[in-house]
Every structure is written in C-alpha cells, then in structure tokens.
Amino acid sequence: MTQTHDLTLGDQRQGFVDRIRTTLARRTEGRALALLLVVSLITWIQEPVAFTSWSVTLGRIALIGLVALGLTVVILMGELDLSVASTLAVCGVVMASIDNLALGIVAALAAGLLIGAINAFFVVVVGLNSFIATLGMLFFLRGLAFVISDEEPVRLANVDAGISFGKPLIGDFTPRILLFILVFIAIQVFVTRVRSGREMYAVGGNRQAARDAGIPVTRRIFTGFMISGFVAAGAGVINALERTAADPTAGSTVLLQSFAAAIIGGIALTGGRGSVLGTLLGAASLGILQVALTLSGVQVDVQNIIIGLVLLLAVITDPASLRAVMASTKSFFAARATPAQGG
Amino acid sequence: MSDETTTQTAGATAVATPPVGEIDAATRPDEGRQLNPLVWLADRGIFVFTTILILVAAVLVDGFWSVDNATDVFNRAAPIGIVAAAMTFVVISGNYLDLSVVAQVATAAVILIAISNDRSVLVAMLLASLVALIYGVVNGVAVGVFKANAVIVTLATTFIGLGILRWASGGSIYFSEVDAIRDFGTTELGSVPLSMLVFVAITLILAFVLDRTTFGFSVRAFGSNADATRLAGVGTAWIVIGAFVISALGAMIGGFVLAAFSQTAVSSMSDGFEFRALAAIIVGGTSVFGGKGSVLRTLLGVVFVSVLTNVMVLSGWGFGAQQMAIGALILLAVSVDALARRVTGR
C-alpha cells in the first residue's frame, strides 16, 4: 500500500509519461508533493523570508500538522474523527483548570484518551457511522468546554512554565516543533513497522476480510480513535501552554486545517490507502502557504477561503473520485455515440 | 412511502414503519417487531417525547405556558425549521448532512439586509437565490458527480462561504432600514408570527415534493440503495444535485426569515444552525443512513428541539450546557436509530 513497487519489465516499455502516471497512482503523496513544490516555489520567489525564518514556518506546520497526524490513523481505518477540534478545546480547558501543571497535563491527556474511547464505542458497539457520531461529539464537547471554562478563557496558574515552553529548546526548535517531529516518527513507525499499526490498513481496506483474517477489528478501532483523541489532547495542552491560557473556542479552524492536511496528503477517505508521510507533506504545504499569505498581508478570512478551496479540490481530485467522473463521462458519451455509429 | 406519512399524521395504530424496500412489509407477520421497544422508540418515540416535554414544561417551568413565550418559540423555530425541512432531502438521499447551511443562512441574511438597504428587496432576493444555487450546485456536483464525502465537501464550502462573507462584510452588523422587511418580521396572526406560517407552508410543499413526485421518490430510492437506483437508469448525479439545491434554497429562506425577525444581519448569526437542524431531522425519526424519513417528521423534530431549547433558556441554562444537550440529543437519537436498525436486520 505504501511501499514503492519496483517497476517490472512490462512497465519499461511504457513511455515516460505513463511511468510517471503509474508511480503517482501507486504512491498516495503525489498531490501533496505537487502542492508543496508549487507553494514552495511561489513562496520562494514572493516571500523568501518564510524560508529564512525557519522556526516560524516550522511552528506553523507543527500547529496544523499535529492534530492531522492523529486523524491520519483514524482515516486509514476508513473512519472520520470530526471531534478533534473540540477535543483540543476541552483538553486545553481541563489542563488550565487544574492548578498543578503536571497533574493538569496528565488529566488532559487522559481526557483525550477517554474521548477517543467514547467515539470508538459509538462506532463499534452502537454501530453508528463515525461521521455522525463524532459530529455529535463535536457539538457536545464544544459545549462541555464552555461549561468547564464558564465561557471565558482560563488562565494558566503557572504562567512561567507556559512562557518557557514557547522558547526554542534545541537550536531554533521550540518544544512544539520537537513534539510534532516525535509524534510523526512514532505514528510513522507504528503504521509501517508495528504489526497492530499495519493492521490499521487492513481494517480500512476491507473490514470483513480483516475480521476473517483474525485481526481484532474492534480493538484496532478503539486504538485508532484513542490515538486521535490523545494527539488532539496533546495539541490542546501545547496550545494552552504557548498561549498561557486555554480558550474554549480554540480550534475552530483546526478542524478545517487538519482535515485539509490529511486529505491533501492523499489518504483515501474510504480507508486502507495513504501514508503518514503524506499528511506531513500536506501539513508542510499548508503551513508554508499560510506563512506566505500572512507575510503578504492576506487576512485570516481570505486564508480560510484558500484553505477551504484547497480542501475542496483535494477531496474531488481523489483518485477514486476522478475514476468515478471518468467512468460517468465515458458512459455519457458512449450512450450518445452508439446510435450515431449504428446509423 | 406515501402510506408512511398517512399513518404518521393520522397517528394510526399500524406497527413499526417497514424499512423502505420492503414494500409488502405491511402484509407480513409483525409480531417480532411489535414487541421491540427500540424499534418502537425509533419510529414513534418523537410523538411521546414531544408531548411529555411540553406537558412537563407547562407544569414545571415558569413562564413557559404563556402566549408571549409561544410566539417566541415560533419565531425562533421558523428559521431553523425551514433549514431543517429542506436539509431533510440531503439526509434522506443518504448524504448525511449539509454542514454549509451555517454559511448559507448567514450569507442570505446579510445579502437581504445589506442589498435591500442600498437597492431593493427584489434585487437582494435575486442575488441571494443566485448564491444559493451556486452553493447547491457546488456541493451537489462535488458529492454527486465526483462521489466525494458530503461531510468533507460541505466542511470545505462552509469555510469558503464564511470566509467570503466575513471578507466581504468585514464582520460588520447590518441594520435593516426597509419597512417591508420589518413588517414581515413583526406581523403576527393572533400569537403566530408570519414566519411560522411560511415554515408550515414550506414544510407542506417539501412534503409533497418528497412523497408525491418522481424526484422525491428518486431521492428516497437513492438513499435506500444508491447502486440499485443507478442501475435502474435514474440519473443519480441529478438527484444529489437536486437535494443539495433544495437544501440551499431552504437555507436561503431560513436566512431571510432570520434576518426579518432580528432586523439585523451579521456573519456569525447562524452559528450552530447546522447542528440544530440535524438534531431536529434525526430526532424526528429520519435516518442518517438514508432512505427512511419524511419532512413532516422533521416538523415534529423542530417542535421538539425548539421547545427543548426554550425550556433550557427559561431554566437559565448557559450557552455551553445547551450545546451539550443538543449534542447528546443527536448522539442519543442516532444511537436509537442504529440499534433499532440492527434489530430489524437492515
């Protein structure tokens, strides 16, 4: 699914364009890579500052990408987790409401795991469609964040810890960037090298076949949603620390950005295809795009329009979507061509 | 399908509505289903719960049982109800929901107020209709032709639409200076505002379209079994586009009514509309799995959700608590539907 396949003899007879097409069809990161190249090129010409101030750009990529990494695991299983943005808000508020910093972080992460387990419960045990289940959770958790925080931002008790958290730790890297890289490596290793992680692909590709092959599908789905909840909670903690306060309305654009990063990254929403690397490339292209737009003085509203357009384009240029369009176009013309040939 | 509506409205004694596709289910022995409380709850629960809710509220909640409060409930129910009634088409067609109604309602409201102040109400409505058509066609083509996931597509169009609206309006609040709009928003027949009559009229028209026209049958058929509908030679892309266009037009009218009621328009005025509308549709008994449901059921769902919201407001619940309750309601209603579906084996 994600491995590159060596070209066979048959492929060598094809033209150059065909070979590129074959490779692009096998790898799922094609669109993310193309977008990244285009965005980088334009940014390099228009706003080269985005590349010289690496820490800013990387910080932005980490901000967009972290939640998307957890989401990737869920989408690989053919499910969606729309509750990530609200999970981020709730867990940030939970952390800030507890005076002891360490205890707060632990409680927030535990809350993320619990939310993931509840999502998985609705999907596996009740048998709900994950879109609808996590949509209900999205609304429920957003309300919960308001209730816990009393509808206003909660200030951290330990502001110093928050301030030091925002400072570079190693070289130009802030803890946020380091944690992002760490989570990327962990999830990448998990889904490509660890058996239970590899089984996520099987669960997404063909759930019945996975079950028949003896894969504990229920447990894998719980794992997937809990990873997503945990990572979203982590992002909530990081956000609250960097801003030294937890905002219950946090993460309204997180939902858009994380889905955009994952889907541009080439994960099939039907599950079973895609890679964590693709999500990283998707997040990188969005991050560079945002930094470049901000540097050129483009408003946040317009940035949202552009990211929304990118997401819309990404979801309709999915290989499966394009195949559907090609098939219907062909049958459309075939239906009209046949009588002409007969006559 | 048509007999389903008649049994609901007449409150007949017939047992659980058969899943669509089992045309001869009425003639089958129904003992197994008759006894299952879950199936009964998924199908008939809304009647009981709405009645209980209203009775309990009338007894326990101060200020609920008054003419003024009833008018207030109607005023607030009408815009959401119109949105929900139209969005029912998208849900029945098996495409989950149209998240972008939140952007559509606000856009229509802002266009109505802003343009009618400068030009005329007619120009504003024409422009809003054009925008609604664009929304419906873009969503419908992406979902129907490109077979993209409806939730993701409408999530993207929500941000595109809200972004454009905020960018164009600068996030400012528009106050209406047009008499016609104020008259519409304040006219009441007895204690029933005009907007409520618009809502009921639209519900009846949409119920007719869904239950009595070929398009309506196609939408339902597509929601129950998309492949079979396609193989039957129905243009499935047109069904999906049609459903999203109806949803968009409903959202537009909902936006008009909302703007007329509040006399103002701002890009954030419709926050949460998509969830309240979805809650009303699902609580009414329309299935998110597609195929099963009706516009009249959505009307009941709207009554339930509106009364519940009103009771929460009167009881002093905060904004967050209200959101939690609506979220929990959505989860509960879809869970009951999913479990009942498992019992009936479909």
Describe the structure concisely for a colleague.
With 343 residues, chain A is mainly alpha-helical. Chain A has helices at 9-12, 16-26, 30-46, 49-52, 54-76, 84-97, 101-126, 130-149, 159-165, 175-193, 195-205, 207-212, 217-243, 254-264, 276-295, 300-316, 319-342; strands spanning 154-155, 245-246. The longest helix of chain A has 27 residues, at 217-243.
Per-chain topology:
The complex is a heterodimer of chains A (343) and B (346).
Chain A: H1 9-12, H2 16-26, H3 30-46, H4 49-52, H5 54-76, H6 84-97, H7 101-126, H8 130-149, E1 154-155, H9 159-165, H10 175-193, H11 195-205, H12 207-212, H13 217-243, E2 245-246, H14 254-264, H15 276-295, H16 300-316, H17 319-342
Antiparallel strand pairs in A: 1-2
Helix pairs in contact in A: 3-15, 5-10, 5-11, 5-13, 5-14, 5-15, 6-7, 6-8, 6-13, 7-8, 7-13, 9-13, 10-11, 11-13, 14-15, 14-16
Chain B: H1 2-10, H2 31-35, H3 37-60, H4 67-92, H5 101-118, H6 121-144, H7 150-169, E1 174-175, H8 179-186, E2 188-189, E3 192-193, H9 194-212, H10 214-224, H11 226-231, H12 236-262, E4 264-265, H13 273-283, H14 295-314, H15 319-344
Antiparallel strand pairs in B: 1-4, 2-3
